[in-house]
Design goal:
CATH topology of the largest domain: ADP-ribosylation fold
Structural class: alpha+beta
CATH class of the largest domain: Alpha Beta
Strand content: 15-25%
Distance between the termini: 39 Å
Bound molecules: ligand HQG
Radius of gyration: 18 Å
Largest sheet: 4 strands, antiparallel
Oligomer: single chain
Number of domains: 2
Helix content: 25-40%
Number of strands: 10
Number of helices: 6
Strand order of the largest sheet: 4-8-9-6
Length: 192
């Protein structure tokens, strides 16, 4: 029997949290590249109240049904593909032929500082970018209702010697994005 969607989403948030941010606080060992044993992840989940029921098959179901490609499996190991605040070394592959424009969704209160300092990783290891306007919009919505989608000029990044990396089917990452390579998108609303 598969998990109800809501339970699966909640479990996915905890898995992402453990693999990206707070695994070690729950006794989860991650190696330098962010890998953990699936068995150990299940044990760490059991230490979180309300997640004592989780079995390995539930973790595998979360991974299999995750449309954003948040997780990577290799043998008996799992890791998050992106989003870490933990000090991992991911060895990402550069985007060989980046599209002319990538997108970043944020909210209006951040714009002044972004246009001054550029996009910086804040609490994470990298700046996260989307391949489509709509995905960026969804990312921005997590931060509030007044979403602003920014366009990132990838040839400008190249001129500045900044590499963009593949981090999943819906996410690219970069160490930072200078203000010169950022412009607000003219498209103001979803499906507009
Ligand atoms: C903002 C989710 C002021 C930035 C998403 C963002 C993504 C600045 C916030 C992934 C700034 C950081 C990451 C500056 C950046 N001044 N604000 N100079 N530079 N910011 O959550 O990109 O669903 O750490 O605009 O979809 O929102 O979890 O980054 O608003 O792919 O898999 O600082 O997490 O994926 O917020 O999200 P976050 P993000 P999952």
């Amino acid at each position: 029997m598969s998990l109800p969607e809501k339970a699966r989403e909640k479990l996915s948030k905890k898995i992402a949290g453990l693999l990206r941010h707070y695994g070690p606080r729950y006794g989860l060992k991650l190696d330098r590249e962010g890998w953990a044993k699936i068995r150990d992840l299940v044990r760490a989940l059991h230490r979180i109240p309300g997640y004592e029921w989780v079995e390995e098959k539930h973790v595998l179901e979360v991974v299999a049904k995750d449309e954003k490609g948040r997780y990577e499996l290799e043998g008996d190991r799992i890791r998050a593909r992106y989003g870490h605040s933990l000090p991992v070394k991911m060895k990402y592959k550069p985007l060989e032929k980046p599209p002319p424009v990538l997108y970043h969704g944020t909210v209006s209160r951040n714009i002044y500082s972004i246009m001054e300092k550029g996009l910086v990783p804040m609490k994470r290891r990298y700046v996260h970018l989307s391949y489509t306007w709509d995905d960026a919009y969804e990312t921005g919505r997590r931060h509030g209702p007044d979403v602003v989608v920014l366009e990132i000029d990838t040839s400008c990044l190249k001129r500045n010697g900044i590499q963009v990396y593949y981090a999943g089917p819906k996410v690219a990452v970069a160490p930072w994005i200078p203000p010169d390579c950022i412009r607000p998108s003219k498209r103001g609303s979803p499906r507009g």
